[in-house]
Amino acid sequence: MDTTRTLVRPWPRGRRLPRLCAAALAAAALAGAARRAEATVTISTDVDRTGDRRPDAENPLWISREDCLTDNDLRFTVTLTGFSTSQTLEVWVSESQDCTLYSNRDTGTRCRRIKAVSPLDDTMEIELSAKEIAAALGAEGCEGTRSSTGAVSVTMYFMRLESLDQDGPDHAKWESTKMDLQGPKPPTEVEAHPGDGRLLIDFKQNEDEDVEGYYLYCDGGGQSSPGAGGAGAGGGDDGAGAAGGAGAAGGGSGGGATGAGSSGCQASRLVPGEVPESALRCGKVGKANRGEAMKFDNGEAIANGKPYVVGVSAYDLVGNAGPLSELSCATPVDVDGFFEKYRDAGGQAGGGFCSVGGPIGAGRWVSAPLGVLVAGAALGLWRRGRRLRARSITQESQ
């Protein structure tokens, strides 16, 4: 029996050869597609900061000016599967462009590379510099120069690349970070008033949407020009100088304040229109028209008898301080006024609810009706004392 024909088959002829080639190519393509389907880049949602992390309500994964200046960077955990030793993990940043397209990466402006890592591993910890992210979006040196003070969108592409000109590489996108380097515009009509161991600061709020509150700034090394804002009106016996002048003294331990936004206030470290040093921060208030400065962030207290130059800046959701307002001056005073003298004379009213309301003395507060009531009581005690003394003198003379 001739078995040659069953052992050696003839080479395919006619239409069979193209069909076999097509089948082989399809199988190879399917195998490649299967390998690509297995290839994944996954970013863990447990993203952290290298420095202090803000509370969840303050967008802790956004990049603020303080984050940028202090290198409070972002730390990601990335998981890779199906990778090869010839590949590189690169992180590219853009505000709105698709960085998986080589045409956007090739320009050097639409997308910017901020990280390249090789060799690869199953799980990798990737730290991304806040400064480099800011620079990639046009904020060199952490300086925001945009006309809008709102947050800027950031898209980060974690891509596994075989070659630099590869289109559509396996990748993962991160879009939960924004960049916000600029604080809101400042409030206006700032006016500081003296208090006992504190300064009371009034201002007109900025109505911008991104305003969360206001920082108060004090400089004890500043000066107030006597000619600016007019001379302060004399203070009363309680030692409170009148607002509107340059610290006019009262009958007791005097104090006073310049008018709102007075050009007579000068401070080498507080400059209107510039972002102040955080070391000069002496108070903080939410969305209100008045703030109280009692101590600096380092714990140093506002001191009686020391003149201060005061300014206010608005802050946003991530704590960015905006440019400083116009300045005002005031000197805290040690109050020994009506209430103290009244109590020393035996009076029992005052305090408690009477500490609420409009200004009296140098930063002590009382409602107007109750103030009249207490004043009447004090006058009655005084008159009664005079009558008793007069009666005693008459009896002795008899």
From TrEMBL:
It comes from the Bacteria. The chain crosses the membrane at residues 362-382. Residues 245-262 have a biased composition (Gly residues). Residues 168-178 have a biased composition (Basic and acidic residues). Residues 168-195, 245-269 are annotated as: Disordered. Keywords: Membrane, Signal, Transmembrane, Transmembrane helix. Residues 1-39 form the signal peptide. This is Secreted protein. It comes from Sorangium cellulosum (Polyangium cellulosum).
